[in-house]
């Protein structure tokens, strides 16, 4: 793509996002953009629900039967879980960013561009959410 | 000439087809979305007025110290009924009513996908409300708060809580049904061309809200059932002496309760996202970010429930996870606020009545949001928990975030709802009374709380320094009441005597403004084609891809009520759906269920049998009339262009069955979570031994898989002569396997030596097996419907799609059985 084309596609982008009239609102190739929107949501839910369930249920179960609480192991599990979910969000954002550049370059396909914008931004947002959750085991000890 | 005559004849036939009965018959038989929506809104508004009067009584009592206007018992009853009414009988039902009315108009559909189920949901809601309020007739008014914490609601109350539990469970079932209805409509009934990037914010929001209701309201239905079983059968879920745990109720209640707040707020915010652009003549700024904000809010709201439990003794790290989630959601809400401000900034705001309420919403909700950030912090929350600070916070969020938008929406769409104009002057007066009254009432409560006044106390001694702020709150409450009276009189008067409204008084941007006000029975004589996000401001798309839709759905079809179906993402037209006409069947089962509830409450069990029979007859008659309708509409002229009986995600039935299957799995998963929660908190689990019948349980699993597979095999509809036999064979196998599974589940339930009153493990296993019995009956009913469809129709497609839906339900029953088995036998071994 030469510079002129690139500039023109950048100018068209706001209109694409505005969902204006024109050709090209088709469902072709919307699966990956849709996934960049949905996967970070699942990652954030796994981060929160997993952190809560693994930590709280393990500690409660151990203390209710008088066993020592596996603090060190739990901390590692929590950090690993959240690191993995953060990676999922970052990869989703990266995929969204790459496809967004290509999507804009090819012009048209406003639906696809819309989904990619939403997917990219929500990936970043949920990545931030995972960081907020995942930072806690670094501050508090498990079962504290 | 001939063409003109044909067109006139077609238009006349079409109009006749969509004509509805009038008067009392309409009240009981109309199932169209507008009629049901109006019913919901009127009923909910009446409950709102009743809840408001209850609030006034409480404020009179608190106007001065040591007041004896009300006794403590009456005060407890009032704050319980006020909270329950506003949360369960007003807020969510009113928004569902508004969505019922508006959503098809906004997305370009002629009705909602399951109009009879929609009417059924409304009657369940009404009967649930009547049951709750009938507690006054028996002097058994619930008095444990709208959150019904155990052990208060379990051990220290008479039959009063049974009214609360049964009444509200019916209302919640109605909410789940409405959520499925709205979700399916948004996914596959949008106007051709309304791809996801062109969907109105209200539709995005209701889709998110439907998801939240399905995930979050089921736990409350499960929790209410468990509490009722604790109270009547003697199960041990909340009895900590035999393995239960009162905190389980708090977890289940707030897993519902916190998303409930956003179920109210998000539609409120969506109303503002429509009011602000229309009254500023400016497109909504940052549409993609608003979509992200509401989707994020919906998801994150499911993970905040623990911040209602910061004072129950949870580990610091657990609370910190939920503080992090609570802080994250404020960003999402903030995004929407900035979008509205930018829209106002770029547009030309007109200070109409709806806009005044929208601005009042923004100011009030931001204030409530800021105190929300404060109480999301564990350290601060532990200081103000159960004080009037929290009362102030949630009224700022709920009245600011939901009531102001509802009033904005009512004034914005009033012409569309009634075809009449209200008095602008009275509208402005009502707004200022409500706005000033609101802040006079609730701002002082922040101080009352910070100065130490706890919630839910019927009086306070003099000399604490909170006399004046309490009096101020009482004065403010009466100012609000004056505003609500002016608003009600203004709207009621205009509905009957108001001047006729023009079709589009605000030059609105969304699709509903392209039809008349009020809309005709069919919403649009010609189904609209959407080419932009602001269809009322832009030209209709002349894309030749939509020519077929234009031909078939312009004053047509004339043989059956129908609307096109479109694909979920791009909204390309790919099928059509029949829409039913008026029928009385949807009212029969709710009345039967109401009789069952009344019989259980009064312990007059013969009435329960009558009610059950009535419900069964109602469901049976409904199914029969449904298939009769499908039989009559064998060959509509549009069938050649648009298939009425497609399989998979092209059909509303597939989505309905999938969502129903999801609710079943969520319900059983909630039971499994409850058992696991009790297990990890109990010193011994199981208390004696597990159910431990692997052969029996394995056999049931195989039979359920067989029922699923047989139903799935029957979903084909080739034209071959053996097709009918194939369907009958699949029905026979699925029915036999399902019936055998049901029989074995009953055997497992009744012969495994489980005594639900012995300990929490046995309670869990007993309830899981009981639930599985009900689920097997659901599966068999689905197979029964396939049989009915097969016998009533010559064509194969009807039985094939019904068989597919049955397969989805049997699949869910099989998944639920696996969850049950894992919970009763595997988890006790795998988890210490």
Largest interface comes to: A-B, 52 and 52 residues
Provide the β-strand percentage band of chain B.
Answer: under 5%
Could you describe the largest sheet of chain B, including whether it forms a barrel? 2 strands, antiparallel
Number of helices of chain A: 5
Q: Fill in the CATH topology of the largest domain in chain B.
A: Cytochrome C Oxidase, Chain A
Distance between the termini of chain A: 57 Å
Record field, number of beta strands of chain A: 0
Strand content of chain A: under 5%
Number of domains of chain B: 3
Helical percentage of chain B: 55-70%
Order of helices and strands of chain B: HHHHHHHHHHHHHHHHHEEHHHHHHH
Strand order of the largest sheet of chain B: 1-2
Amino-to-carboxy terminus distance of chain B:
85 Å
Structural class of chain A: mainly alpha
Region (Disordered) (chain A): 1-25
Biased composition (Basic and acidic residues) (chain A): 1-11
Keywords (chain A): Membrane, Transmembrane, Transmembrane helix
Transmembrane segments (chain A): 31-54, 74-101, 113-135
Task: Itemize the secondary structure elements and their pairings.
The complex is a heterodimer of chains A (144) and B (832).
Chain A (H helix, E strand, L loop, with lengths): L2 H15 L13 H34 L6 H35 L4 H25 L1 H4 L5
Chain B lengths: L1 H16 L5 H7 L3 H30 L9 H36 L7 H19 L18 H4 L4 H29 L12 H32 L13 H35 L6 H15 L14 H31 L6 H24 L1 H7 L3 H31 L5 H27 L16 H31 L49 H6 L9 E5 L6 E6 L9 H15 L2 H28 L19 H30 L12 H20 L9 H29 L8 H33 L4 H34 L2
Antiparallel strand pairs in B: 1-2
Short description:
The complex is a heterodimer of chains A (about 140) and B (about 850). Chain A has about 140 residues and is an all-alpha fold. Helices cover about 80% and strands about 0% of the residues of chain A.
Verbal overview:
The complex is a heterodimer of chains A (144) and B (832). Chain A is mainly alpha-helical and 144 residues long. Chain A has one domain (31-139). Helix content of chain A is 78%, strand content 0%. Chain A contains 5 helices and no strands. The model of chain A is unreliable at 1-25 (pLDDT under 50). Chain B has 832 residues and is mainly α. Chain B has 3 domains: 31-497, Up-down Bundle (Cytochrome C Oxidase, Chain A), CATH 1.20.210.10; 588-624, no CATH class; 655-830, Up-down Bundle (Four Helix Bundle (Hemerythrin (Met), subunit A)), CATH 1.20.120. Chain B is 68% helix and 1% strand. Chain B is built from 24 helices and 2 strands. A two-stranded antiparallel sheet of chain B has the order 1-2. In chain B, strand 1 (562-566) and strand 2 (573-578) form a beta hairpin. At the A-B interface, helix 2, helix 4 and helix 5 of A face helix 10, helix 11 and helix 20 of B.
């Amino acid at each position: 793509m030469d510079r002129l084309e690139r500039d023109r596609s950048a100018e068209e982008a706001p209109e694409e996002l505005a969902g204006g009239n024109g050709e090209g609102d088709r469902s072709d190739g919307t699966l990956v953009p849709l996934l960049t929107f949905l996967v970070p949501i699942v990652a954030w839910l796994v981060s929160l629900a997993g952190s809560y369930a693994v930590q709280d249920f393990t500690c409660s179960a151990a203390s209710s039967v008088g066993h020592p609480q596996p603090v060190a192991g739990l901390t590692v599990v929590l950090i690993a879980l959240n690191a993995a979910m953060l990676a999922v969000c970052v990869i989703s954002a990266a995929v969204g960013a790459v496809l967004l550049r290509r999507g804009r370059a090819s012009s048209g396909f406003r639906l696809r561009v819309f989904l990619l914008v939403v997917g990219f931004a929500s990936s970043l947002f949920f990545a931030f959410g995972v960081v907020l959750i995942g930072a806690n085991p670094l501050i508090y000890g498990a079962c504290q | 000439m001939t063409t003109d005559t044909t067109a006139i004849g077609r238009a006349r036939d079409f109009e006749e087809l969509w004509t509805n009965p009038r008067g009392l018959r309409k009240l009981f038989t109309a199932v169209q979305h507008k009629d049901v929506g109006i019913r919901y809104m009127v009923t909910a508004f009446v409950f709102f007025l009743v809840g408001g009067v209850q609030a006034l009584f409480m404020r009179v009592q608190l106007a001065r110290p040591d007041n004896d206007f009300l006794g403590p018992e009456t005060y407890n009853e009032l704050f319980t009924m006020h909270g329950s009414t506003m949360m369960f009988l007003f807020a969510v039902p009113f928004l569902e009513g508004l969505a019922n009315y508006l959503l098809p108009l906004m997305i370009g559909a002629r009705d909602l996908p399951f109009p009879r189920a929609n009417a059924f949901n409304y009657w369940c809601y009404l009967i649930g409300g009547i049951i709750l309020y009938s507690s006054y007739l028996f002097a058994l008014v619930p008095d444990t708060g709208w959150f019904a914490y155990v052990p208060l609601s379990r051990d220290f109350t008479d039959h009063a809580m049974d009214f609360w539990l049964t009444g509200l469970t019916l209302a919640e079932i109605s909410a789940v049904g409405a959520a499925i209805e709205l979700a399916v409509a948004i996914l596959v009934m949008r106007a051709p061309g309304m791809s996801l990037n062109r969907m109105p914010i209200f539709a995005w929001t209701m889709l998110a809200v439907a998801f939240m209701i399905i995930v979050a309201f089921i736990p409350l239905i499960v929790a209410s059932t468990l509490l009722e079983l604790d109270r009547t059968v003697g199960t041990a879920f909340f009895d900590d002496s035999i393995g239960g745990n009162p905190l389980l109720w708090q977890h289940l209640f707030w897993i519902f309760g916190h998303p409930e707040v956003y179920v109210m707020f998000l539609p409120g915010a969506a109303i503002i996202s429509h009011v602000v652009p229309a009254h500023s003549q400016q497109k909504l700024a940052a549409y993609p970010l608003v979509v992200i904000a509401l989707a994020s809010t919906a998801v994150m709201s499911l993970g905040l429930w623990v911040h209602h439990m910061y004072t129950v003794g949870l580990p610091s790290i657990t609370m910190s996870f939920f503080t992090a989630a609570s802080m994250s959601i404020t960003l999402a809400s903030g995004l929407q606020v900035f979008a509205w401000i930018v829209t106002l900034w770029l547009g030309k705001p007109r200070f109409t009545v709806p806009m005044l309420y929208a601005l009042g919403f923004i100011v009030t909700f931001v204030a409530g949001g800021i105190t929300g950030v404060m109480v999301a912090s564990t350290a601060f929350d532990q200081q103000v928990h159960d004080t009037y600070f929290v009362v102030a916070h949630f009224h700022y969020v709920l009245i600011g975030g939901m009531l102001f938008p509802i009033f904005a929406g009512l004034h914005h769409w009033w012409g569309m709802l009634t075809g009449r104009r209200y008095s602008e002057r009275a509208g402005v007066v009502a707004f200022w009374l409500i706005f000033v009254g609101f802040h006079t009432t609730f701002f002082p409560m922040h101080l009352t709380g910070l100065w130490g006044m706890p919630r839910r106390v019927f009086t306070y001694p003099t000399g604490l320094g909170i006399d004046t702020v309490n009096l101020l709150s009482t004065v403010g409450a009466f100012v609000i009441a004056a505003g609500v009276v002016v608003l009600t009189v203004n709207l009621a008067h205009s509905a009957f005597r108001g001047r006729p409204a023009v079709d589009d008084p605000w030059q609105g941007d969304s699709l509903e403004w392209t039809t008349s006000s009020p809309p005709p029975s069919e919403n649009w004589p010609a189904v609209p084609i959407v080419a932009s996000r602001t269809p009322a401001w832009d030209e209709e798309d002349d894309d030749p891809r939509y020519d077929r839709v234009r031909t078939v759905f312009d004053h047509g079809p004339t043989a059956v009520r129908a609307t096109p179906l479109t694909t979920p993402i791009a909204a390309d037209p790919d099928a059509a759906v029949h829409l039913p006409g008026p029928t009385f069947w949807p009212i029969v089962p709710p009345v039967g269920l109401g009789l069952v509830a009344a019989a259980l409450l009064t312990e007059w069990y013969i009435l329960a049998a009558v009610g059950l029979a009535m419900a069964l007859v109602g469901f049976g008659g409904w199914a029969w009339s449904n298939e009769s309708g499908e039989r009559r509409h064998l060959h509509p002229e549009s069938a050649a262009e648009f298939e009425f009986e497609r399989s998979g995600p092209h059909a509303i039935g597939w989505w309905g069955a999938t969502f129903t299957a999801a609710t079943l799995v969520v319900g059983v998963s909630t039971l499994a979570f409850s058992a696991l929660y009790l297990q990890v908190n109990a010193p011994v689990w199981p208390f004696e031994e597990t159910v431990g019948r692997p052969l029996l349980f394995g056999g049931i699993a195989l039979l359920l898989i067989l029922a699923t597979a047989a139903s799935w095999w029957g979903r084909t509809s080739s034209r071959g002569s053996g097709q009918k036999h194939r369907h009958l064979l699949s029905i026979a196998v699925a029915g036999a396997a399902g019936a055998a599974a049901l029989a074995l589940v009953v055997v497992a339930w009744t012969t495994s030596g489980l005594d639900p009153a012995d300990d929490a493990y046995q309670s869990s296993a007993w309830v899981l097996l009981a639930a599985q019995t009900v689920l097997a009956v659901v599966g068999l009913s689905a197979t029964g419907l396939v049989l009915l469809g097969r016998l009533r129709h010559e064509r194969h497609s009807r039985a094939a799609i019904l068989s597919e839906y049955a397969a989805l339900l049997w699949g869910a029953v099989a998944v639920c059985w696996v969850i049950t088995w894992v919970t009763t036998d595997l988890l006790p071994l795998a988890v210490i």
